[in-house]
Amino acid sequence: MKIEDYAFLSDTQTGALVSRDGCVDWLCFPRFDSGACFAALLGNGKNGRWRFTPAEEIKTTRRRYRGETLVLETEIETASGAVRLIDFMPPRGENPDFVRIVEGLSGKVEMKMELIIRFDYGRIIPWVRKKHGGLEVIAGPDALILRTPIETRGEDLTTVAEFTVAKGERVPFVLTWFASHEEPPRAINPEHALQETIKYWSDWSQRCRDSEPWRDAVVRSLITLKGLTYAPTGGIVAAATTSLPEEIGGVRNWDYRYCWLRDATFTLVALTEAGYVEEAASWREWLLRAVAGSAAQMQIMYGVRGERRLEELELDWLSGYENSRPVRIGNAASNQFQLDVYGEVLDSMYRAHRGGIETDENDWNLQAALMNFLETKWEEPDEGIWEMRGGRQQFTHSKMMAWVAFDRAVKLIDHCNCAAGENLERWQKIRDEIHEQVCAQGYSSEKKAFTQIYGSEQLDASLLMMPLVGFLPVSDERVRNTIEAIQRELMDDGFVVRYRPEKNKVDGLPGKEGVFLPCSFWLANCLHLLGRTTEARDLFERLLDLRNDLGLLSEEYDPKQKRQLGNFPQAFTHVALVNTARILSGGEAAPRSRRPAPGA
């Protein structure tokens, strides 16, 4: 099953992936970063899955989300009739539910259910018993209860059932998680839950400000972003999965079920511009809570509640998606030093303030502490935006984002009347010093482009952000040259790769990866700023064509195999889609750019 063959479901606390034929191959309870009880996505059926199949041969299948919701409908047709599988996860409190309703559409269809539950990412075989009006499944701290009017039985460590659905009949199945030391929660009414879930998502979607002519794509991306939100705290995970590979069969497999500070600015802009100020404020508050404490201890990512320890482990009992090993949980990049996140945090605070989310004295004190720390660190090498594992370098993008941090801190002083003390003049001086250094050491006159590392000749697509964050205007010859160089050297089949790992080995990893979809959206933004609107729109439309039939995108794309790569669905990609649609529709393009120095 290809990555794009999956649908995404969420209750805004955890998420699931459902295959094109209606099999749940990935589900973590009770949080995004909890152990999976269905892990077939990263192994095989014996690692846990939940499927319904007709007893006879399937003629056709088709699927869709019901309107602007996260209610999935999969229609399956056989020679004897047709059924509709309705899947959803009701937004909830403490106990998550996964609801499946099998509806008869025509004729009579004999159906089979197969439920294989394996806790701890497909490793632990649970104890199963009939109790509390359902089938209880228990192992360690986790328990599930399956409630359905259909009789089930055990068979070879699998729960199975057979039943017939005629036209007009609806057969419900509700799987609910609870802590194993507690009693299971009261049963929900699946039909009521369906109507409430439809209303929840429909009402939320209707709040979206139009982004014509791409409103459908924008709304679906915003729904996906909302689905990747951990509602109790406002944190937004990068993706619902771990270890979906950036190269099939390769080792570039990472756990993305955490919250990256880097996503803050892009996400805040996308939410506020679309009218979701409450969600933007919750994300900002999560951000402030997560980074609170010593500025020297700020991480690049955190758990959904702000957890700092994200120890990286390899799960050797899972074969990996299409044998792409290792399967990892946790993320060692959480311990990296990355200068650019300071720019992202300060930029997000500035954007939030401009968007009506005011900065108070406590907020400012935290930001000032981060800036005081950055004063002593901005000249140091780091691991960079792409979380390189080949050693620290003087990355041009990192220095540029350090400039953004000081620039936004100065602007915040101007806009929110923050107590500046001696900061203002000193930060202005450092900002100008960084700008001068980047222009002198980050630009290669031989390459005629800003390069990945000071003094190198290698390109990096992250430098497409230069005009978008206001470091230099797009009219600057060096910026135009950089955009053109990236188009010449960092494009595969019309899309952008981040860099060429096979050339400079800077990331310390074997193999390669696909084109990086957020970077391709950034290129569309730059082309628009250059006045090359037709090219920008053409690239944007081609990016939209890469979405699956449900409007979902992962992080990367393989233009040769014509398939998506990386964790799925990817928040960073969908945020980039929303922001590019806004820019191409005439919204604010970028912060005001610094004018080039005399003689530049």
Topology readout:
Layout: E1 7-10, E2 15-18, E3 24-28, E4 36-38, E5 49-54, E6 58-65, E7 72-78, E8 81-88, E9 97-116, H1 119-122, E10 127-131, E11 134-139, E12 142-147, E13 153-154, E14 159-166, E15 170-179, H2 190-206, H3 215-227, E16 229-230, E17 235-236, E18 259-260, H4 264-273, H5 277-291, E19 301-302, E20 313-314, E21 328-329, H6 340-354, H7 361-375, H8 396-416, H9 423-441, E22 443-444, E23 449-450, H10 465-468, H11 477-489, E24 491-492, E25 495-496, H12 501-504, E26 515-516, H13 517-529, H14 533-544, E27 556-558, E28 563-565, H15 571-584
Antiparallel strand pairs: 1-2, 2-3, 3-4, 5-9, 6-7, 7-8, 8-9, 9-14, 9-15, 10-11, 11-12, 12-15, 13-14, 16-17, 18-19, 20-21, 22-23, 24-25, 26-27, 27-28
Helix pairs in contact: 3-15, 4-5, 4-6, 4-15, 5-6, 6-8, 7-8, 8-9, 13-14, 13-15, 14-15
Describe the model.
With 600 residues, the protein is α+β, with helices and mostly antiparallel strands. The chain folds into 3 domains: 3-181, Beta-galactosidase, Chain A, domain 5 (Distorted Sandwich); 292-300 and 337-441, no CATH class; 449-593, Glycosyltransferase (Alpha/alpha barrel), CATH 1.50.10. Helix content is 32%, strand content 22%. The chain has 15 helices and 28 strands. The strands form 8 sheets. Strands 5, 6, 7, 8, 9, 10, 11, 12, 13, 14 and 15 form an 11-stranded antiparallel sheet that branches. Strand 3 (24-28) and strand 4 form a beta hairpin. The protein starts with 6 loop residues before the first strand and ends in a 16-residue tail after the last helix.
